[in-house]
Amino acid sequence: MAKKNTPELWDDFWKLEATIKEKDQHNLLKEEKSIKFQRIEKIIHSRFKDLNGLKVIEIGAGTGLDAALLAKRGATITVLDYSEQALQHSKDFFANNNLKAEFICANALDIPEGLYEQYDIAMSFGLNEHFLGDERLLINKSHFDLIKKGGVAFISVPNRLNFPYRIFKFTAETLGVWNVGEEYPYTRKELRHICNNYGIENYMFIGDSIYSSFNFISPFRVLRKIFNIKPSFDHQKIKMEKGSPLDEYFSYALVLCAFKD
Question: Which architecture does CATH list for 7-259?
Answer without folding.
Answer: 3-Layer(aba) Sandwich (3.40)
